[in-house]
Amino acid sequence: MQLVYLGLGSNIEDRLCYIRSAIQKIDNLPHTRVVEMAPIYVSEPWGVKEQTDFLNTVIAVETTITPEELLCLLQDIEKMLGRIKEYHWGPRTIDIDILLYEDCIIDTDVLVVPHPHMLERNFVLVPLSVLNPSKVIPGCREPINILAQRCGNVGLYEWEGDKID
Ligand SMILES: Nc1ncnc2c1ncn2[C@@H]1O[C@H](COP(=O)(O)OP(=O)(O)OP(=O)(O)O)[C@@H](O)[C@H]1O
Ligand SMILES: Nc1nc2c(c(=O)[nH]1)N=C(CO)CN2
């Protein structure tokens, strides 16, 4: 079994419903189970500012699926949930990023792991540090809780709405 961390984001209504559905579909993938979920956060749009706030979370998954195959299956789930790519970093019903796949370093045309922007995103580092504060990301010296602290909480707060069971 490989331990994988996935980042989920949605900023088209019903954001919570898309996050919930994506997690269910990931848990239903073959040889895969969702083992932990961080709290959900509301976060200001990063990259392209003129769009609705996102809901973001991170989940831990155990799987025997290879990284490339997992990427394909996650992209299928994004399509099932109506994801249309209007523009880079633009609004989406659901975005599923492979943040970490064990301690693998992957750099191909279709997949880069650790995710190339994760160190700049508090909506990734903060929930990830809730799940695994002492984890050291390949290529980093310091553990995730230190990176998350440094990244700060600007534009990020815990979602107070409907909790997922
Ligand atoms: N770690 C990764 N997780 C998910 N997709 C990845 C990863 N590394 C590379 N990709 C590639 O990125 C491509 C574009 O992904 P996507 O449209 O979701 O980008 P984005 O969500 O707009 O931006 P970002 O990747 O910065 O969050 C995908 O087709 C996929 O092949
Ligand atoms: N707050 C926030 N901003 C984003 C997000 C996201 O998930 N959350 N995803 C993006 C493209 O992947 C671009 N900007």
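qc> The mean pLDDT is 95.
qc> done
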